[in-house]
Design a protein that fits this description.
36% of the residues lie in helices and 22% in strands. By secondary structure, it is an alpha/beta fold. A hairpin with a 2-residue loop joins strand 15 and strand 16. The two termini are 39 Å apart.
Length: 721
């Protein structure tokens, strides 16, 4: 049956080369058929902000969404805006699918980002901070403190803060200091009491100290003061004999995009380490200042930092609301989402109450599909690799590592396996953005333990999520494979929604064996049976499926396309979906972040619906489902519909063949896209509208809550941590 399905799909076979795309892309679609990807990203972060604005959410969760918004926007500036500016400065063309000039692109980004940051700052001061106070968590200023509280805080300041502060003067003997990216600083103007001369100094707020310092804790009332406010209230201790004239907070964002010309370097690790050092000194791209900063101080910063007025963001309230992540240490569970403990997947539950599950035996019985974080990562993926490391019949383990936690039990399992004499291959993607330094450390630790560490192919990031265990059973070798949609990271597995497929299917095992061999060698094999692999044929394989649905619709057969991704940007995929829509194919797109596709445009995309769901978990899985005239073809994997994923990364999708798994995935999709489910709807104008209330004012279904409840009902074992 599997062979028939593969041949019928026409994927991974030699005739891929004969697939003619000319008809698919010679359409007379309008030139303005795409939404701008940068503005679409800002719209995604606006949806995050709308969660923080929701008064029905627990207040500490609203504060957390404010912190997520701030962190997201920082990365957007450090990478996307920085990349656009670098291209302008170097004369490179800006990749845009909306036909606008570079100046227009940056101007629109600046306008939208300014508006969002003002909305974000106002939300904190006018809604979330007062709501926290009503719940007994007060964020106060120094002026709000009693004399006893000030005395207590002064002792804390002298013992814990003052010793690590480093005031830096600016005068003829002291040039303007280097301002590190994302650091929170105080710009201080002082007068020398002896000479009467005004001076300027910069003081960095120590990032290793708690951002919010506890003032008092009385029953259910807790009072905190921002660290920068505490420091500002004791500047006279730092500048004795000086008159403090003024002080203002400011924060700088730098270009932190990493650019490595891999084909021009002999040692990727050394080149990457040099680039990471350079990244610390990237050019400034955004200056955030308090709205009370005087023009004298602001002009000094603008001139010294060589930044434009467009790059200055005047904001009310405290800067750098990433600090609200620190409120996570407050022990007030009633102000958070109700706790959820993931359950062990039924197939992996031990036969006896206190026994240990044999995951290999469970996988031999049939494919196992696990849905994180509703089902436990620890008792599935982690347990799978730990059992493989200890099992004397396991001969080899091969695994990709894109992002993992610093104390990862996954890495430890690979080390244990290598130290016990097994063959272990770890493909570590050292170019994973913002995890480069950590991945270099772990790669070297793995190498010291005897793991064969490779770094993939020149010019490509290895983003696929694959693990392969080779086990000797009754004189033959059996492949145990895992293909996932998310990273092998126990920490993010608790908040990222992902799927993982375990199988002993020989086709998948052989596919992974070939793929791993080529990732540690020199080329990517084009022929795979149950996998679609980028960069050579994943896009082409998806286009074939989309085109087949179009032809089915024209022939009066059952047709339908359902795609769940983080981003939908690739023009060829979007154009193919437009053409399918024009033939009458119902197309449903579930996207978390960026979407350049315009749904609901008459004559172009009237049969396309786009939804987005955000909540307590980050929707991260990728699902591709095609009706195929009643014989659904469903894939899961690591790839988003972006140029980088389809052209510059090694990605893998695996075909899901077990009927119950296909139904689980399609049922989830139907519920996610239903009008009765709370979500954001994308209009043809690029505007996302939140639909979380029914006409009678009742709340629509929360998909993540519903999935939790469904998993809890069908699981029979104990909750696992």
């Amino acid at each position: 049956m599997i062979e028939h399905d593969v041949l019928d799909a026409g994927l991974g076979d030699a005739d891929d080369d004969d697939f003619d795309l000319s008809e698919a892309f010679d359409s007379q679609l309008p030139d303005n058929r795409y939404l701008d990807r940068e503005l679409s990203w800002l719209a995604f972060n606006q949806r995050v902000l709308e969660l923080a604005e929701d008064p029905d959410l627990p207040v500490l969760e609203r504060a957390n969404f404010l912190a997520i918004f701030a962190s997201n926007l920082d990365e957007f500036f450090m990478v996307r805006v920085a990349g656009l500016k670098r291209r302008i400065l170097t004369g490179l063309a800006i990749p845009t699918n909306v036909g606008r000039s570079p100046a227009d692109v940056l101007g629109d980004i600046s306008a939208d980002a300014h508006a969002l940051q003002l909305r974000h700052a106002d939300l904190w001061t006018s809604q979330v901070q007062p709501s926290l106070a009503e719940a007994g968590i007060e964020i106060v200023s120094y002026d709000d403190l009693s004399d006893d509280e000030r005395e207590k805080l002064y002792d804390y300041f002298q013992a814990q803060v003052f010793p690590v502060l480093m005031p830096l003067a600016v005068d003829p003997a002291h040039p303007f200091p280097y301002i590190s990216g994302l650091s929170l600083n105080l710009a201080i103007r002082i007068r020398n009491a002896r000479t009467g001369r005004q001076e300027f100094a910069r003081l960095k707020v120590p990032p290793m100290l708690p951002r919010f310092v506890e003032v008092a804790h009385d029953g259910k009332t807790q009072r905190f003061i921002p660290l920068e406010s505490l420091i500002a209230s004791h500047l006279e201790d730092l500048f004795p004999g000086m008159e403090i004239l003024d002080h203002h907070a400011f924060r700088l964002t730098r270009n932190e995009d990493v650019v490595i010309e891999e084909d021009e370097t002999e040692n990727l690790i050394q080149a990457l380490e040099a680039e990471l050092l350079r990244r610390r000194f990237g050019p400034p791209i955004r200056l955030e200042v308090g709205d009370d900063m005087d023009d004298l101080t602001l002009n000094l910063l603008i001139n010294e930092l060589d930044i434009t007025a467009q790059e200055v963001y005047r904001l009310p309230g405290p800067l750098d609301l990433r600090g609200l992540f620190d409120l996570g240490r407050i022990d007030r569970p009633e102000l958070r989402y109700p706790p959820h403990l993931p359950r062990t997947a039924v197939a992996f539950q031990p036969a006896e109450q206190n026994g240990r599950a044999d995951l290999f035996r469970a996988i031999r019985k049939g494919d196992v599909l696990v849905h994180h974080p509703y089902e436990s990562f620890a008792t599935s993926v982690q347990a799978f690799l730990e059992q493989a490391a200890k099992d004397p019949h396991v001969l080899a383990i091969k695994q990709t590592l894109y992002r993992t936690s610093g104390d990862s039990p996954i890495v430890q399992a690979l080390i244990d396996a290598a130290e016990s004499g097994k063959q272990v291959l770890a493909l570590v993607e050292v170019k994973a953005r913002f995890d480069e330094a950590a991945n270099i450390v772990w790669a070297r630790k793995l190498e010291k333990a005897g793991v064969h560490v490779v770094y993939g192919l020149v010019g490509l990031k290895t983003h696929c999520k694959l693990a392969l265990v080779i086990r000797q059973e009754d004189g033959v070798l059996r492949h145990y494979s895992h293909v996932g949609t998310g990273n092998y990271n126990p920490k993010t597995s608790r908040i990222y929604e992902d799927f993982g497929l375990f199988t002993t299917d020989d086709q998948v095992g052989r596919d992974l064996t070939r793929l791993f061999n080529e990732l540690s060698g020199y080329a990517i094999e084009k022929k795979f049976k149950r996998l679609l692999v980028a960069p050579l044929h994943l896009r082409k394989g998806l286009l074939r499926h989309i085109e087949k649905e179009r032809l089915n619709a024209l022939a009066g057969k059952k047709s339908g396309i359902r795609i769940k991704v983080n981003s939908m940007v690739d023009e060829q995929i979007i154009d193919a979906l437009y053409r399918a829509s024009g033939a009458g194919v119902p197309v449903a797109v579930w996207v978390r972040g960026i979407c350049s596709l315009k749904p609901g445009v008459p004559g172009m995309s009237e049969n396309i619906t786009v939804r987005s769901i955000l909540g307590r978990y980050l929707e991260h899985s990728r699902i591709f489902a095609f009706e195929n005239d009643g014989d659904p073809q469903v894939y899961i994997g690591s790839a988003d519909m972006m140029h980088r994923n389809l052209d510059r990364r090694v990605e893998a999708l695996v075909r899901v063949v077990e009927p119950t798994h296909v139904k689980e995935l399609t049922d989830l999709f139907e519920q996610g896209m239903a009008d009765t489910t709370s979500s954001w709807h994308l209009g043809p104008d690029g505007v996302w509208t939140r639909r979380n209330l029914a006409d009678d004012g009742t709340h629509l279904l929360d998909l993540q809550d519903a999935t939790m409840a469904k998993v809890q009902k069908r699981r029979r074992g104990r909750a696992v941590r």
